[in-house]
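Interim report, section 4.2 (structural modelling).
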Amino acid sequence: MKVLRPEKTTATPDHNVPTINQHLSIIDELSRHQVEMLKMNCIEHDIIYHGLGSEGHGVVHIIGPEMGLTQPGMTIVCGDSHTSTHGAFGAIAFGIGTSEVEMVLASQCIMQPKPKKMRITINGKLNKGVTAKDIALYIISKISTSGGTGHFIEYAGSAITSLSMEGRMTLCNLSIESGARGGMIAPDETTFNYIKGREFAPAGIEWDKAVERWKALKSEENAVFDTEYIYDAADIEPMITYGTNPGMGIGISQTIPTTNGMLGSDKSTYEKSLNYMGYAPGEKMTGKKIDFVFLGSCTNGRIEDFRQFTAFVKGKKKADNVTAWLVPGSKQVENQIREEGLVEILEEAGFELRQPGCSACLAMNDDKIPEGKYSVSTSNRNFEGRQGPGARTLLASPLTAAAAAVTGIITDPRDLL
Amino acid sequence: MLLTPPLRGGWVGLLNKMAYDKFSTITSPAVPLEIENVDTDQIIPARFLKAVERKGFGDNLFRDWRYNKDGSHKADFPLNNKKYSGKILVGAKNFGSGSSREHAAWAIYDYGFRVVVSSFFADIFKGNALNNGLLPVVVTPEFLQKIFDAIEKDANTEFEVNLEQQKFTIKATGESIDFEINPYKKHCLQNGLDDIDYLVEMKSKITEFEAP
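Predicted structure of the assembly:
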């Protein structure tokens, strides 16, 4: 059986690739074999393949938008749950399993139950030091990791429309961490300005026609949703997680919740989680010692994330007790970091840049956080062992990660801005 | 063979692909896993996703909860407790959250389970399970507690999962509960089929839809 629409299919190896010495053959035998198989299959089926080290290589959810492949109104699927990222462009985008990838390759179609509709509105202006990542962690802390299950989410409100495309992608990326298959934002001028001129974007008269079409992709004034939440941007502070799922997050100035009122498996699951993290209920998060900082992933591996991190650490020094892994989300992000002179600032502050890939987000390559160590990570999951067996992950924004990197402890980034 | 199509009209195809065992009624004891929010990273950690075939994942099912670093079994994990056995895994709420890795469903199936019971499943896991011959059974939180209680009382107590009647029964007490399943997926499970043949049969409609 052949792939039905190879011209509408793109592939890149991201999950298991090394983030150093990418010009050499992959040392891990299984990873090398897996990447080789992908390449061979792409050649056999005429699928566009962005191999390791090539200019188009990177985390799939970063290169799609960068190349202008991701456009409003499209249906985009990928065998990765963070495909929700592309919803930032007003696309229907969701992660699927291997069998479903097979269905799409064979038929360019997929069978899905119709999702319920949820709208999350964030009104007002974000506080200083608060990013899209903090909005996402705030939402998940409110609705839990299962609150979005069965739904697609539309994000709306002035705090959302004022986000950059990078910020919108971070927010939609984390939709799956609330259980929602997808999250989307109505396309607007910010969206169109981002797409215009990119490699696969429509051009000339086709561009004008596309924009006209895209402008219609928004909910009606009187649209009815199955579930609605409304929050005030002013209530959101820089967030950090203290437990083993992304819903276990708090404002960085707050204390770890107590077990008061919890019963049965709620309580035992919570205690298991805190025990894994080595934390106790009621403790303050700020001031706790950390060991690693990871900047990268499909959540926060974009150029804006590196700009924010770099601006924060400029003129400061990396703390001696911290190992920092800075992993660009794509070759293009890596190139931009170099062209914009960010790499010199980072090196001056004691940081090194690695090569693109998913890296320590899921530790499928060699970038594993050692057992028991604490990692402030800009990635998307703080599950047990996610960043390596026994690793303890604290999810946060690039700014909060930068603050921890220069102080060696959990630090409110607002104190250093 | 004619059945109600799940999403659109005009069912025309014959499904003929055998991807997994046909699902019939299962009567078996169950293994309890009373932990909430079991994510797919726990079910099968990412470092075991490098295989290019679907076999053999059962050995690493719940790897880091099941084994010590030296490969020995952790005594307190239910899968290592000899008193528990059977083809039914009973989880707590929000089972299968996180990563879309289908390997999670493969690992549970490969280990020997054919049914996973919970009061709430994550969407992607549920879809992956249904596509791989693993039946996700959703019961109420109250009924889930009854199942856990029954196992605690007698680890050998049996449960009956009747897919045809969509009924889950605690044999010892006779208490039962009806469960939902999409009629099309039910048919696929009962006949060991997947969706590809159905979709490929629609090729002329797909081409028609794609035409400018």
